[in-house]
Write a structure and sequence with these properties.
193 residues, mainly beta, eight-stranded antiparallel barrel, binds manganese (II) ion
């Protein structure tokens, strides 16, 4: 059994009106944990980074998305835990629903914790995560550091120096298609009409 931390996720949504998954917290110990980065054109365009920890997807809204330049510090605002099934969600959240707008699976893969002394769950509570991401667009080491602002929801997403660090690549600007369906956000929106 794993503690279900999805009540906030469920409260924000009416599952009769949104195609998003209801989902449940589920521990999958045998497999490598997953991550997903969803491009989401809601009130404001942003990227949602989600890491599988404790049977759910711990989530951050990253307004500018991930950078491959170690000099960039990208603001990452912690949001409510999402169910694992959300990693497969691509589509349009209808108008008048929470987060209304198209959602694209911009990148997806597995990760591992770089620091082995504690569990991911404990690093998350500490506010200091270092992971090696294995996606299609985003690879290598990233740090997520919680800042000391009141409320403690503000983190920074930083590329760590490794062979994948690249100050010129700018993947959020040049790679704008789904890794699952190869569609742009506009095409996802059109297909839902
Ligand atoms: Mn979002």
């Amino acid at each position: 059994m794993v503690q279900d931390t999805l009540s906030s996720y469920r409260k924000k949504r009416n599952f009769k009106k949104t195609p998003e998954p209801l989902g449940r917290a589920k521990k999958r110990t045998a497999k490598a944990p997953i991550f997903v980065i969803q491009k989401h054109d809601a009130t404001r365009l942003h990227y949602d980074l989600r890491l599988e920890i404790d049977g759910v997807l711990k989530s951050w809204a990253v307004p500018k998305g991930p950078s491959t330049n170690p000099k960039d510090k990208r603001l990452a605002i912690q949001t409510e835990d999402h169910p694992l099934a959300y990693a497969n969600f691509e589509g349009v959240i209808p108008e008048d629903n929470y987060g209304a707008g198209p959602v694209m699976i911009w990148d997806k893969g597995t990760y591992r914790s770089i620091k082995r002394e504690m569990s991911m769950s404990d690093w998350f509570k500490q506010g200091h995560i270092e992971v090696k991401l294995k996606g299609k667009k985003i690879q290598g080491d990233y740090a997520l550091i919680r800042t000391n602002f009141p409320g403690k929801k503000r983190w920074l997403l930083i590329k760590m120096k490794d062979q994948y660090a690249d100050a010129r690549r700018k993947p959020t600007r040049t790679e704008n298609r789904s890794v699952v369906t190869n569609r742009t956000l506009h095409e996802i929106e059109k297909d839902a009409q």
